[in-house]
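Q: What structure does this chain adopt?
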Amino acid sequence: MIPLLGVVARSGTGKTTLLKQVIPYLRQHGLRVGLIKHSHHAVDIDTPGKDSFELRKAGAEQTMVASSSRWALMTETPALPTLDLCYLASRFDESTLDLILVEGFKYEKIDKIALFRQDSGKDLADILDDYVVALATDVPLSLPVQQLDINNIAEVGDFIINWLKNRPSV
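A:
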């Protein structure tokens, strides 16, 4: 299975902002990165009026839209009670990736980097668990976990590269 590394924080802390910067850094260092992003909102990447949207709404359980530059598979899951991160990760092509970064899914039992910004007004306690391997923050905190400068993309990126190299084989 492709290694999964979570990036967790309260909403508004900067998970997406950090990932938009760290993914290019990881790519520059030769890593092939996938991403799973959790959303609390209904997600629909299709457009009403388009053939693929109409066919999916007609009852297709899975709909693939493909072009010469990308493809996307939409799967209807109304009967699933919760998202299964391992199942979602298994949909990726292992031969094309070295790592899947996971934005959100803060309660999953995977290694995670927690993010904290002092001026966010958000509590840190509910995102810290035994799976947090590092804390990216803008202030030093007295916690027994490796701390990274959330504003230093190279430091965060190098941590991820080293985490990937040094993680036990599964």
